[in-house]
Design brief:
Shape of chain A: globular
Keywords (chains A, B): Acyltransferase, Transferase
EC number (chains A, B): 2.3.1.-
Largest sheet of chain A: 7 strands, mixed
Radius of gyration of chain A: 16 Å
Enzyme class (chains A, B): transferase
CATH topology of chain A: Aminopeptidase
CATH class of chain A: Alpha Beta
Low-confidence stretches of chain A: 1-21
Largest interface: A-B, 51 and 51 residues
Structural class of chain A: alpha+beta
Number of strands of chain A: 9
Strand content of chain A: 25-35%
CATH superfamily of chain A: Gcn5-related N-acetyltransferase (GNAT)
Helix content of chain A: 25-40%
Mean pLDDT of chain A: 89
Distance between the termini of chain A: 46 Å
GO molecular function, one term (chains A, B): N-acetyltransferase activity
Number of domains of chain A: 1
GO cellular component, one term (chains A, B): cytoplasm
Oligomer: homodimer
Order of helices and strands of chain A: EEHEHHEEEHEHEE
């Protein structure tokens, strides 16, 4: 099993080298897995919409109008991103965002990790980071709508499907 | 069966007496059901937090800190309310709100209709009003998390539970 060294547990603050200036949370990576790559998470790194589109392309998502993507990012409560730094190059390798009422509910959307970084523990660490950011703001509950094939992934992170019979429901335009 | 007269269909605009000044959508009510009450829906009527708390009390919801309720309302994309006008008195009888990224997703929360107005078609008309307001803004899909006993109610309105195996999931604080 490939892993990130004990990340984001309450006793492991020394594993996060927080840079207050640009709020980059650098990961302490296993070099046997990640080689010379450095990776950080951020909630305020500016995102190039074309680079985000490329990331979404890499996991096969349908393209969306960039104008609408920009609007959605502008009106998201949290925009989280994961970045690989390799030499002089910084590349977007993960993304997630959340809508919220800033009090009771936050809902996570558009979670994506580049295929090259999947199955390495990065998605788990990234979601823990997102949850931590939302919980820090005293938001009562965090929700999401999980595709069938990632329900177990989110369960392992502590998400409960249909708690007390609550069902996620969608209304699509006619 | 008790009913509201043909409400909010595309050919029935004359049933909505829109008052542009304060954006009240008056309902055309069956007097045999509603007597002398007049009812309107609004998305910009200012809401007294104590009156909202009373409404939530009437359906047995757990009380929430008003400070947090205010914050949630301030940061909701849509705050919809239903009002009964009887003589000189205007009372809050229904409420719903939605968070949104203003583009792809809106999520409806805190739907409540006063018990005195339940099973009269009002909840259905109110939700159609909420959906209409969200759809008007070109939001791609409208979601919600339905308690087990209202899943069928939302299904009749066109909401689909777990479409393509998508599951609603909740993360609660430890």
């Amino acid at each position: 099993m490939v892993w990130l060294q004990k990340l984001f547990t309450k006793t492991d603050n020394d594993n996060i080298l927080s840079d207050k200036t640009d709020e980059r949370d650098w990961l302490n990576l296993d070099p046997q897995v990640f080689g010379r790559s450095k990776i950080f998470f951020s909630t305020n790194q500016s995102i190039d919409l074309y680079e985000l589109e490329e990331l979404c392309d890499s996991v096969g998502w349908a393209r969306r109008p960039l104008r609408k993507v920009k609007k959605a990012l502008d009106h998201s409560y949290l925009v989280a991103s994961a970045w690989e730094v390799r030499g002089a190059k910084t590349s977007l390798i993960g993304f997630a965002r959340a809508t919220s009422d800033h009090a009771f509910n936050a809902t996570i959307w558009d979670v994506v990790i580049h295929p090259r970084f999947q199955s390495k523990g990065l998605g788990k660490a990234f979601m823990k980071y997102v949850i931590r950011k939302l919980r820090k703001d005293d938001i009562s509950n965090v929700t999401l709508f999980a595709d069938a094939h990632v329900v177990e992934f989110y369960q392992r992170l502590g998400f409960i499907p249909d708690p007390e019979g609550i069902r996620g429901m969608f209304y699509y335009p006619e």
